[in-house]
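Schema walkthrough. Field components (list of strings):
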Amino acid sequence: MFNYYLRLALSSIRRTPVLSALMVLALGLGIGAFMTTFTVYHLMSGDPIPHRSDMLYAVQLDNWDPNRPPTESARDVRAQLTWQDGNNLVLADTPATRQVHMYGTGAVVVPEGNDPPFDESVRATWHSFFPMFDVPFLYGGPWGQAEDEARAGVAVIGRELNDKLFNGENSVGRDLQLDDQHYRVVGVIDDWQPMPRFYHSDWGRAFEDTEQVFIPMNRAIDLQMGQRGNTNCWKMPDEDLPLFEGFLKSECVFTQFWAELETPQQVAAYKDYLDNYVRGQKAIGRFERPLATFISDVMEWMDVMRVVRDDNRVLLRLSFLFLLVCVLNTVGLLMAKFMGKGGEVALRRAMGASRRQVFQQNLIEVGLIGVLGGLAGAGLAWLGLRAVENMYRGYQHLVHLDAVMLLTAIATATVFAVLAGMYPVWRVSRLAPAGLLKTQ
Amino acid sequence: MLKMSQITKVYRTELVETHALQGLDLHVEEGEFVAITGPSGSGKTTFLNIAGLLESPTSGAYLLDGEDVSRLNDRARSRIRNEKVGFIFQSFNLIPDLNLADNVDVPLRYRGWSAARRRDIVGKMLDRVGLGARHNYLPSQLSGGQQQRVAIARALAGQPRFLLADEPTGNLDSEMAEAVMGLLETINEQGTTIVMVTHDPDLAHRAHRNIHILDGQASDVPDLAPGNVMQFSESLRV
Amino acid sequence: MTDIGPIFRALLQNKLGTLLIALQIALTLAIVTNAAFITQQRAADIARPTGLDEPNTGIILTTIFDMQLDQMQMLRDDLETLRTIPGVIAATVVNSVPASGSGWNDGLYVDAEQLSNESVNYGRFMVDEQGLDTFGLELVAGRNFEPEDMVRFSMEENGIPGVLVVSQALADALFPDGDALGKTVFNEVGGGQPMRIVGIYDHMQNAWPSSDRVDLTALVPVYMLFGGGMYTLRTEPGQLPRVLTEAEELLSKNRSRIIDYVRTFEEQKRRTYSGDIAMIKLLGSVIAVLSVITGLGIVGLAWFSVTQRRKQIGTRRALGATRWDIVRYFMVEIGLISMTGLFIGMIGTIALNWFLDTSYEVGRMPLWYLPVGTAALWLLGQLAVLVPARRAAKIPPALATRSV
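Field assembly_structure (string):
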């Protein structure tokens, strides 16, 4: 029967091409708009590191100016640490399984031969970064504790840079020049793009590319490599120090700090540890505000950092209402269309079709319109995402349309079409079979 | 074959109650060809709808083929319509965007038969009404008489025991009407019971028996000469 | 207008169909009006003047990788090069430009003893004596920087500027009595270094256009020597593209640094506002597409209703209705439906704005959006129904007597 109903649906759609096209278009536009904003929203609010997100914690310490308003939640506290606090913690024996301290910097990569030099973002970090964030390696591996302690000139590079500098060959052991310094490549990272880029998700940076160069933080500090990204200061040291040294000893925050905590006991112990650390610092005249430390796991952190922007939420809401209008539009048109089918329905009922069969037949027609609407919607969503990609900077990782999304679009459209069509279809199946026959 | 006793049908709206049938008694024997006559508004259409199981009576008993069908649910009634009743309408009621074969196929579709069996029957039926060669045509490509022959083929496709015809020649010129009427007589001779509603006294006269419906009640019309029937109808039509 | 009674009663016969269109119109009004409001607001934000000579300003960012290079000498050479390109009015080296999303904020005290929460926050732009002219600012009081005001800020040398030139808004924020010129203020970061206000310019935005202190800015006479230079230049009208091409060529001759980018200020501003521009485009398409869908929906339904009512319309014509009567029937009909929908829609519009404002701070919509949106959608309904109504008017009266 299904094939028969499908054939009837097709011929019915062909009989009212304008009305049908209008329904498919309306559904398609509604689905397309909604899928576009939903895809962006979904990817923005996604878990960037699903299997570890509940054991990775971002650390915040409230070291700010005592004259500023008090702290109520993690959102009121700077998202970053001073170098001295981060360095104290990373060197201490804490209850955490692992900790990482890092900051974003940059350097000019000077290729061997005659290729022109170019700028690259550089992440200055500790060896623990790679296992903590489950970074996949193509060649070699991370540097170790020894290199961190030795403040060594070693580097891990990304696949893209490896392709560019070393033609994609195993470059472990090769030389990398950053500015006027030389580094030994110890590892090459495979494609790796957590989305959002949670480990450094400052203002608008949550959707940037991962860095292509990673070097030991101690080395970067020794070289006085300047920070890229937000830096907030409220107090410079009282003593007269050379600029960079003064900066390191200041209350300027510019580093990110993460701890790996696997059990609730560990979480509690680590929080106590942080509180005690701050109390110790208070004793030497720092941290003049009321004690406030925060640890947030990855998803909590994404919320603290407001990674999903209000604009995206507004668009999501509006596009849902938009879809609703399209569905209402379709219900109206379906009502009109099905009321016009009274004659045929009455005839089929006279020929022995039960209400249920009439219902099924028309539901399949509605479903078919839904599938067509879904196809149109998926196509429009694809266009919509291309447009979004062009309009926003740093969204290129957000906007891929895959088979799953295509199927979701079609399924969503079908569900909405069937929901929209349910009432008209029900109405038409309840039409009295008698009475209509005469007037046809 | 068909036995109605004390059938009433009341249509209710917010404002009015219309008593379309008021204790109708009617009996049709197996193999009969019965013509139903009566003026507009007399209850003919309501009778037809109830006889064809398109509507349920408000009260009374309706036995079709010995089975009480007046209180069945939609599903059961649909099945009986499909298996036992064939319909022929004044305006043919072919589905315009289906070809002739697909139109004849409609009742068979609700039987769950195999495609081969259906194709076989559809072919035979179209051959029987002389349109086998045109099974691919659309209704709009046929004359009115041809369309009605397709409609008859459709009505016969399910091999019903009982054919309900509602002014089957009403939209046809006399030549075509004669052909259709001839076809119905042949069908009746082959054993199918036919109940035909008509205004046309000539047609009514060709039936075995005439039943006249007036104010929702039926009465057998004695074997009158055609001229008398004409007069009788005319006077009531005013 | 005597039609309204029967039309209204006829509509009541088809409650659901009427309600569906009315609801669609209501939702369309709510969405379109709110989207238009947000769009309008973003556009107004973008249209605010930065204070710069926007169409004639360009930015060049360079990064050195030879750390032994004499950066001060390089800056001087580069500025000399840029300033001698024909068509250049002025060029300077800066730490950032307005509305670029990246810059430097600091605080000022009027009194060295003030607490930090009493400081006035300001956007700090480090420029040389051509800064004022490059940014195209108008000095309303005092003087520009002199070469001897310039200090160097580098890893080795933390020069502290002794003077600054402030925006009128900053001057007023610091000294509400209007006597800012010549006063000494104290810089928050760095521990209260004193600086004397030597000049006041009309207006310039800071680097973050969404901040609430966007107009509080100041120029300080500092050469920043940290691994490169961001050059800004202003040209004669229409000369910018040529000048930038020439500048890139000339600066590329120095092989011990790279040029990260060369862009016009307008491009920089577009990048900063990319989120708002995207919002405008997306909401703009929502408005357009939604209006079309609702319009087409009305066309479709009315078209269908004409088909259904052919006989009735023919009868009306036979009974003496003129073509215009038929057209008017449909216009009054959609008018009544629109009225219902728009009434619900007005409530919906306010509710949606309230929701969006309390949840996402889009702002309160001025009330005049309501009548404008309502009128626009009313008109849309009338225009949409015109197509099928004209078709209905063509139905011949003879149809009334035809049986099928």
